[in-house]
Amino acid sequence: MVNFSCVDGFDALDPNGNITIKWDVLVDNDGSSQDVRVTILNNQLYRHIDHPGWKLSWTWPDDGVIWHMTGAETMEQGNCYKFKGSQIPHCCKKKPVIIDLLPGVPYNKQVANCCKGGVLTSLTQEPDKNIAAFQMNIGSFKGTTPKMPENFTIGVRGYTCGDPFKVPPSKFTEDQGRRTTQALSTWNVTCSYSQFRASSSPKCCVSLSAFYNSTIVPCQKCSCACQGQSKCIKPGELPSVLQLQPNEEPEPQVGCTSHMCPIRIHWHVKQSYKEYWRVKITITNFNFVKNYTQWNLVVQHPNLRSIAQLFSFNYKPLYPYGQFTNDTGLFYGVQYYNDMLQQAGKNGNVQSEMLLHKDSDMFTFREGWGFPRKVVFNGEECVIPTPDDYPRLPNTANLPPQSNFFIFIFSMLLLPTIF
């Protein structure tokens, strides 16, 4: 049985993480309409919104309409038959669905922090790109100011939004910070993530190996699904051609494996030196219909506080338990080099090695200490083998001194062939 730590909107590795929707009333036009700025802030340490992006929605409690919109657009205009003449609202739907504009739209359609195709980076990975915003003029069929909307959704699996609540008005700076203005009123909506709500099954798994043991521990069988339960792509087959709607993400089409996960992370304890030890991390994409752009990997291990050198990946420490406990880190790709994990195939993997200092007060290879406690890929917790299956240290008392060398060579020969 798989136990998730991210159920019910609480993530132990990011206890304060959420997405906040901020509704700022900027101008009240004599009670007939309002100018509103809507801002979406991703306050999560490592979980990001990938393509096809967010789709913000709400329900008008009365007969609200959107007259004009800049920086975003609604997916449908709806039936505006009540309005005659040349002035027709941008959207008349009771429940509008708003999407971000794509990069490169004309400047007269843009506002600050718009036009990213709905993609929001995490707070740690790229903190300057975790905000989306748009402005709109809203009114009603009766020519009065509509009431505050309700039933907000962000349009991404796993997220649940609460009710709007009033907060102190937002303040804005102008003239290079010399002048401060503020909204007439501000409402916040908080959206939290639950991996259990996002999917009934995991999306990634972990396999393990070490230089001191010839055993390679694969991902647990049926980690994400079983071959009999869902269709998989056999060697030589092509994935199905999908007819997708705009802003729709395709369902995974996974290569046939025993674990049936779209993503596998392999952790290999590669070598031991006098004062350091080396680990190799390989991330493999088994999904034939998805490139993972701006992917990230969160690893929890007590020795991460002593990383001496990292190759091919970027790294930032996370502090979910305060500044005094540095056992969790965020790994992600180098821009324009390996920040995209390509679809299944020859190039569908990224890998890196890291050198860690041996802390005398904790370091050991015994009892599987060298393996991670928790692994999270793109915000999804991965299935890890049980401790009983970890590669064990050989009984060196009964082995000649050269045996460890042969075990190391044998494991290096096997590693490229694991599935």
Automatic annotation (TrEMBL):
Record localization: Cell membrane
COBRA C-terminal domain mapped to chain residues: 203-391
One Gene Ontology CC term in the entry: plasma membrane
Membrane topology: Lipid-anchor; GPI-anchor
GO biological process, one term: cellulose microfibril organization
Keywords from the UniProt entry: Glycoprotein, GPI-anchor, Lipoprotein, Membrane, Signal
Main location: membrane
Entry similarity comment: Belongs to the COBRA family.
PANTHER family given in the database record: COBRA-LIKE PROTEIN 6, PROTEIN COBRA
This protein's name: COBRA-like protein
Organism for this UniProt entry: Lithospermum erythrorhizon
Lineage of the organism: Eukaryota, Viridiplantae, Streptophyta, Embryophyta, Tracheophyta
